[in-house]
Design a protein that fits this description.
The chain is α/β, with parallel strands linked by helices and 323 residues long. It has helices spanning 9-17, 39-49, 64-70, 76-85, 102-105, 119-127, 148-155, 194-200, 236-241, 258-263, 277-292, 309-321; strands at 4-6, 22-24, 31-35, 58-60, 90-95, 110-114, 132-133, 161-163, 175-178, 185-188, 205-206, 231-233, 248-254, 267-272, 298-301. Helix 1 crosses helix 6 and helix 11 (277-292) runs parallel beside helix 12. Bound molecules: threonylcarbamoyladenylate and magnesium ion (MG).
């Protein structure tokens, strides 16, 4: 199959209407989208990504009316979060209505939902008569894509069209809040911080699972988001001793001092120029991908400051390093 890249919503709609999976931009990462009401189309997502059937998909909608149709009930606190953060990088796990098949939710009675904040994809969703099931558009367990080119590099030939909406503004996946039980629970840190959620929903609990690969509880895998190159936390030793080895990469949070840069033959990148957390988040995945393309023996990384979006960045770094 020939894979076209373009920014034509009409073409994307045509392929989706015909039951194909299509790459779509969101403010977080690119998604691999298909008609959530068409099981054949949804099953293609699992096939293209090589994703196991026990890992449920997020459903993307244009507005709250659509949320009402595909859920049985929206708790007050969930409504408040939706009003505050949608469209935006927040996924709510709510009880699904019968319109959503077990294939989408991996047999669970809940469905993950969000209204994304990207003008092309919102316009596309408004033009469609169905919601879009869409996981991140990367092969299972690899780093999520933050540009149309990232999607093309890995999935070319497997889908007819990638809707190109530029580089993803947030660059980390959505924050997931589950209303499966009475007290809401944050299951994944992402583009909305824990404190932002707590400001609206003070009793929220945080339950980020780091379970081994053998565990097959939907939504709780550890080794997501991982590059292929060995990815190792930076210690005082690793930084100073091996800085003249060209086969080693370094990923710093901030721009390192000029002396390190001048004396080093290593491949050095930094997530942000001036401790800007949004910029760091937005750069993370493309830098991981760049390192992967450079035949390095290993990459040492520095943790982000453990606050705000830095917590989500550190969560991804931690997952990236667990081999
Ligand atoms: O930002 C995002 O959320 C991106 C963009 C494309 O929207 N999507 C995304 O999807 O990251 P995915 O499939 O790569 O990650 C969704 C996570 C998975 O870990 C999945 O197991 C979990 O959400 N999930 C989905 N539905 C769930 C449910 N009903 N209960 C628990 N976890 C769920
Ligand atoms: Mg993913």
């Amino acid at each position: 199959m020939d894979t076209q890249v373009g920014s034509n919503i009409g073409i994307a709609k045509k392929y989706l209407d015909d039951g194909f999976a299509v790459g779509i931009p969101t403010e977080t990462v690119y998604g691999l989208a298909a008609n959530a009401f068409n099981e054949d189309a949804v099953s293609q997502i699992f096939k293209i990504k090589n994703r196991p059937a026990f890992d449920p998909l997020i459903v993307h909608v244009a507005d709250l009316d659509a949320v009402g149709r595909i859920t049985t009930h929206i708790p007050e606190k969930a409504k408040k979060l939706a009003e505050e953060f949608w469209p935006g990088p927040l996924t709510l796990i709510l009880n699904k209505s019968s319109l959503i098949s077990d294939l989408v939710t991996s047999g669970q009675s809940t469905v993950g939902l969000r209204i994304p904040r990207h003008v092309l994809t919102l316009d596309l969703l408004k033009a469609l008569e169905y919601p879009l099931a869409a996981p991140s558009a990367n092969p299972f367990k690899y780093v999520s894509p933050t540009s149309a080119q990232h999607v093309k590099n890995q999935l070319s030939g497997k889908l007819p069209y990638i809707l190109d909406g530029g580089h993803c503004e947030v660059g980390l996946e959505s924050t997931i809040v589950s209303f499966d039980v009475e007290t809401p629970v944050i299951l994944r840190l992402g583009g909305i911080t824990e404190n932002q959620i707590k400001a609206i929903c003070p009793d929220v609990r945080v339950k980020i699972q780091h379970l081994p690969d053998s565990v097959t509880i939907p939504g709780q895998l550890l080794k997501h988001y991982a590059p292929n190159v060995p990815f190792i936390p930076l210690t005082q030793d690793s930084g100073s001793i091996k800085a003249d080895d060209e086969s080693i990469g370094y990923l710093f949070f901030n721009k390192p001092n000029e002396q390190i840069l001048r004396n080093s033959k290593s491949n050095i990148k930094w997530l942000t120029q001036n401790a800007n957390m949004n910029q760091a988040a937005s750069n993370l995945y493309s830098m991981l991908r760049d390192f992967d393309g450079q035949n390095l023996s290993r990459v040492y990384f520095e943790w982000a400051p453990d606050e705000g979006l830095g917590k989500a960045i550190n969560d991804r770094l931690e997952r990236a390093q667990s081999k």
